[in-house]
Amino acid sequence: MSQQAGDFKTSDLGTALDPYLSGIAEEMRNYCHDRKTVVFLPLVKTSQKFCELLNQNGFRAAEVNGESKDREQILEDFENDKFNVLCNSMLLTEGWDCPSVDTIVVLRPTRVRSLYSQMVGRGTRLYEGKTELLLLDFLWHTDRHELCHPAHLITESDEVAQQMTKNIEDSPVPVDIEEAEVMATEDVLAQREEALAKQLAEMKRRKLKLVNPIQFEMSIQAEDLSNYKPAFGWEVAPPTQKQVDALEKYGLVPDEIENAGKASKMLETIRKKKRRRIDYSKTNKTT
Asked: Is 287 inside a domain boundary?
């Protein structure tokens, strides 16, 4: 499925979902026939089709979209329980509040956790007599988006949320959620700095074992390397990752070689010297 602005492309979503709508409508009868439900779908036409299927399965369903002339009346009728299911195509993700909603069905696939959180959030309001929110996850969003811990309700960073959840679980006493976010953010930054310090130390340790290219040039008295100037466009570009890896493999500090042309000439020189040693070794063995 193609993507647009970091999420699934809307025009592809309805077609992918259509074959499953009938089965989903039938399955919903087992879980939310008498509950106050909001269903999020990817396209208006998909939302309208699903609304018809729900009514065929015994629900009192209505559909609302940006073009609905009686939108305000539909929303009011839903709040007053004239309908018990409200289908929409991303219209009600924010700016609308109906605390009595106790079931959310998300049939709009998304890679964006904040969007998923907005949809689920339509059912998280407190309401007298409401004891829980039923979330029907037919598309397995919870495999991608974690909403089950308090951390994910106040932070956009998955890294901070994971650290925050760990800190809360490890704490022997209750923790203020906002203080926990600050602490988790500091922990994550400290971990990043520690990881970077280790990485830099490893790079320094590795480089201590490597030979500076200038030392190598002087040791073999290679004037063509010492006086090298790039002539072609590709030679001016930085060394490729393949060249960098090869230079390290041969024991040279790749950071001291400023362009791809010099790296290529250096590698060619090393390989020629290596072939000469092999040929010399073979010659000695035969004699």
From this structure: no
